[in-house]
Write a structure and sequence with these properties.
InterPro entries: YcnI-copper_dom, YcnI-like_sf. It comes from [Mycobacterium] nativiensis. Keywords: Signal. This is YcnI family protein. With about 230 residues, the chain is α+β, with helices and mostly antiparallel strands. The chain has a domain of about 140 residues: Uncharacterised protein YcnI-like PF07987, DUF1775 (Immunoglobulin-like), CATH 2.60.40.2230. Strands 5-6-3-9-10 form a 5-stranded antiparallel β-sheet, with no helix packed on it. The chain has a 4-stranded antiparallel β-sheet with strand order 1-2-7-4, with no helix packed on it. Strands 8-11 form a two-stranded antiparallel ribbon. A hairpin with a 4-residue loop joins strand 9 and strand 10. It is elongated and about 130 Å long. The N terminus is likely disordered.
Length: about 230
């Protein structure tokens, strides 16, 4: 390799090293996750918070701004207390703050998981601007949008991409509703005739009744004639 080639290789190596040093790894950022989250539905959102203090100071507070959700509930986390900032009139939850107990917190080379169940908005993307507080008083705000030219911001805002829910089939209404169907057997001609006056199904019964009355009358007349005799 000649001198020119070596010089180009050194310059390229320096450029790559400089770009790596100036860009923080993506896993070191605060980010939100919620697998299968659907617009307008309830979901469990997890915030992963790494310790990024250059001095090794512990993370002792995390405040996450919520998109004015109608309902929210935090998970019990040992060593931490959670407080919801709720509007007294509307009940809308605007933010949540986790605070570490004395002696607790996220130490160097550690990360913490903070979970909250909430009703997501009916939008394609939802952002959660966050503020990470350290024991030494340092506060890092994660609220930057991606730069116009592409790439990643220095302190990107945690965000979620929400999926659409299952499509609901439209309701179809018939212009002429079908006649109702009964499970009872269809009536026969004889039963129909018996249900209406003037039918023919009850003629034999009437004849038998008349004959019985005639026989009774004849028997009464015969008995009366014998008494007179």
């Amino acid at each position: 390799m000649n001198f020119a080639s070596r010089a180009c290789a050194v310059v390229a190596a320096i450029a790559v090293a400089g770009s790596i040093a100036g860009t923080a790894p993506a896993w070191a950022h605060v980010h939100a996750s919620s697998p299968g989250a659907v617009r307008g539905n309830f979901a469990m959102v997890t915030f992963e918070v790494p310790n990024e203090s250059p001095t090794g100071s512990a993370t002792t507070e995390l405040t996450v701004t919520l998109p004015d959700v109608a309902a929210a509930r935090t998970e019990t986390k040992p060593g931490w207390t959670a407080r919801l900032d709720r509007d007294a009139k509307t009940g809308v939850v605007r933010s949540v703050t986790w605070t570490a107990a004395p002696g607790a917190g996220i130490g160097a080379d550690q990360f913490g998981l903070f979970q909250i169940k909430m009703k997501l908005p009916d939008t394609e993307t939802v952002d959660f601007p966050s503020a990470q507080g350290y024991a030494d008083g340092t506060v890092v705000r994660w609220d930057q949008s991606p730069p116009p030219g592409g790439g990643e911001a220095e302190h990107p805002v945690p965000s979620l991409h929400l999926a659409k829910g299952p499509a609901q089939a439209p309701e179809h209404h018939a212009q002429h509703p079908a006649p109702s169907v009964s499970a009872a057997p269809a009536p026969t001609d004889e039963s129909q005739a018996g249900e209406h006056p003037g039918g023919h199904a009850d003629n034999p019964a009437r004849l038998l009744g008349g004959a019985a009355l005639l026989v009774s009358a004849l028997a009464a007349a015969f008995a009366l004639s014998r008494r007179r005799a």
